[in-house]
Design goal:
The protein has 407 residues and is an alpha+beta fold. It has 10 helices and 17 strands. An 8-stranded mixed beta sheet has the order 1-2-8-3-9-16-10-15, with helices on one face. The protein has a 4-stranded antiparallel beta sheet with strand order 12-13-11-14. The chain has a 3-stranded antiparallel beta sheet with strand order 4-7-17. The longest helix is centred in the last third of the chain and has 22 residues. The radius of gyration is 23 Å and the shape is globular.
Length: 407
C-alpha cells in the first residue's frame, strides 16, 4: 500500500502546467505524462480505466452490494496554474510543525511566515509540505488526485468495503477554464460527483463565481519623441488609463466573501501597441453582467478619447455559478456534510472564490459540489498542504461511499 505522501510527491514531480494561449486539448502535451501514469496505475490496481484523445481519464469500479445505489463520481484535475512554474518542483517536508516561520530553501531569506499567513497555526504539530520558494507546489490539484487514488487503493485492497458504482475522473486544463469542455458526462456514468479541489480541511462548496475573461488590445501610434506633440499615442499610457477607469476597490486584494472583482492578470506593451488581460468574477449573476457591461463601457470611453480602433475587446464567459444546478439535488451536499462529521471534521460550507470543473459539470447535468483537498495559498510559491488534511480527505471519500450504500 503506497502512502499518500509518497504518491503526492510522485505526482508533483511531473510538470503539468497548462497554457491558456494554446488552442490544443489538452493545452499542453506534458499533462498527458501524468494522465497516462494515472490510467496505468488504475489498471495495475485492477480498475477499468481509459484515457481518451482529449486527455480525460475515466475509470469505473462496479458496485459490490445488492442495494440499488447511485453511481458516485470523484474528480480532480492534473494541471497546475500558469501563474507560477510547475517545473522541477522541490517540496519541503516539515514534520511536527512548531508554529514558526518556515525557510523556503530555494530562495535565500524567503519564508512562509504565520505572521503573514496565520492559518498556518491551525496545523501545529502536523506535517506540512511546502515549496522551496522557486515554484508552486501543485497541491491544486495533485492533492485531490492523490486522495482519490489513495481511496481507490483502499477499496481495491478491501473487498469487504461495501459500495455502489464508483466513477473516477481526472481532467486537464481546469486552471485555464477549459477542464471539462469536452468531458462526456453520459460516458462517465455518474448520478452525482464531487470534485476534490477545495482548500483547507472542512471546506465544502456548492456555489462559485460566475466568470469571464477580458483581453484588450491597445493600438497606439509611435512617433519620434522629439516631434511627438499632438501625434504620439502611447499604448502603455492608454492601457494604464483604461485600468484607472475601473473601480480601484473592486480588485481581489480588497474583496472577500460574495464580493466580485476585476483582476488584471497580465500586461505587455510598447508605445506602438499593448495588451491587457483581466478576469471578471461575481457570484451574483446580475452583478456579473453589470461588471461585463462596465468593461465594455470603459473600452468605449478609451475609443472615444483616442479613436474608434484604439482599444479592441475580446470578452468571453468561462463558467457560471453552479448553485442553481446543485441546490435541487441538495442530498449530495448533505451526504458530504455527514461524511465530514462522521470523520470528526467540522464542515465549512462557503462560496468558492474561484471555480472548479464541478461548475461546468453541474451545468452539463452532473451535480458536482467541491470538497477540500487540503492545500492553501494556491498558485504561488507560498503554497502548502498538511499531510493530515490529505489523509482526512481520502477518508471522507470512503465515508461518502459508505453513506450512499447505507442510505
Amino acid at each position: 500500500m503506497e502512502k499518500i505522501l509518497d504518491r503526492f510527491l510522485r505526482y508533483t514531480a511531473v510538470d503539468t502546467q497548462s497554457d491558456e494561449d494554446s488552442e490544443s486539448q489538452p493545452s499542453t502535451a506534458k499533462q498527458l505524462n501524468l494522465l497516462r501514469m494515472l490510467r496505468d496505475e488504475l489498471e495495475a490496481m485492477g480498475v477499468d480505466a481509459t484515457l481518451d484523445e482529449y486527455g480525460y481519464v475515466m475509470a469505473s469500479i462496479p458496485s459490490n452490494t445488492d442495494k440499488k445505489v447511485p453511481a458516485i463520481g470523484f474528480i480532480a484535475h492534473v494541471d497546475t496554474s500558469p501563474d507560477a512554474s510547475g517545473e522541477n518542483i522541490k517540496p519541503q517536508i516539515i514534520r511536527n510543525y512548531d508554529g514558526g516561520p518556515i525557510d523556503l530553501a530555494g530562495v535565500p531569506g524567503l519564508k512562509l511566515d504565520p505572521a503573514e499567513f496565520p492559518e498556518m497555526l491551525h496545523f501545529t504539530g502536523q506535517t506540512l509540505i511546502t515549496t522551496d520558494g522557486t515554484t508552486l507546489l501543485g497541491a491544486d490539484d495533485k492533492a485531490g488526485v492523490a486522495e482519490i487514488m489513495d481511496a481507490v487503493q483502499y477499496i481495491q485492497a478491501h473487498p469487504e468495503f461495501k459500495h455502489g458504482p464508483i466513477r473516477i475522473g481526472f481532467t486537464p486544463d481546469e486552471e485555464i477554464g477549459r477542464g471539462v469542455v469536452k468531458f462526456d458526462v453520459p460516458r462517465f456514468g455518474a448520478d452525482y460527483a464531487y470534485t476534490m479541489d477545495g482548500g483547507e480541511i472542512g471546506e465544502l462548496e456548492f456555489e462559485n463565481f460566475n466568470a469571464a475573461s477580458a483581453k484588450i488590445h491597445i493600438q497606439g501610434r509611435n512617433v519620434h519623441p522629439g516631434y511627438a506633440k499632438g501625434k504620439m499615442k502611447n499604448a502603455i499610457l492608454i492601457a494604464q488609463e483604461l485600468n484607472s477607469l475601473l473601480p480601484a476597490l473592486a480588485r481581489p486584494e480588497h474583496t472577500e466573501g460574495y464580493e466580485g472583482f476585476f483582476h488584471i492578470v497580465s500586461f505587455q506593451g510598447t508605445v506602438e501597441e499593448a495588451s491587457i488581460a483581466y478576469i471578471i468574477r461575481d457570484h451574483d449573476k446580475p452583478l456579473f453582467e453589470a461588471r461585463k457591461k462596465m468593461m465594455e463601457k470603459v473600452v468605449g470611453e478609451i475609443n472615444a478619447r483616442y479613436g474608434e480602433a484604439a482599444a479592441t475587446l475580446d470578452l468571453r464567459d468561462q463558467y457560471y455559478n453552479m448553485r442553481e444546478q446543485v441546490e435541487p439535488h441538495y442530498e449530495v451536499v448533505e451526504m458530504a456534510v455527514k461524511a465530514m462529521e462522521a470523520e470528526g471534521i467540522k464542515p465549512k460550507i462557503q462560496p468558492i472564490r474561484g471555480g472548479t470543473d464541478g461548475a461546468n459539470l453541474s451545468f452539463k447535468g452532473l451535480p458536482c459540489p467541491n470538497i477540500f483537498a487540503g492545500g492553501l495559498n494556491f498558485h504561488g510559491k507560498m503554497e502548502f498542504v498538511p499531510l493530515e488534511s490529505m489523509e482526512a480527505a481520502s477518508k471522507v471519500i470512503l465515508r461518502i461511499l459508505s453513506l450512499f450504500e447505507g442510505a
